[in-house]
Amino acid sequence: MDLSKFASRKLIATVLATILVAVADLMGAPLDPATLETIQSMLMTLVGAQGGVDMVSAYKVGTSIAGTAKVVKADGG
Question: If I label 6, which of 17, 39, 48, 54 is the partner at 20 to 30 A Cα–Cα?
Answer without folding.
Answer: 39
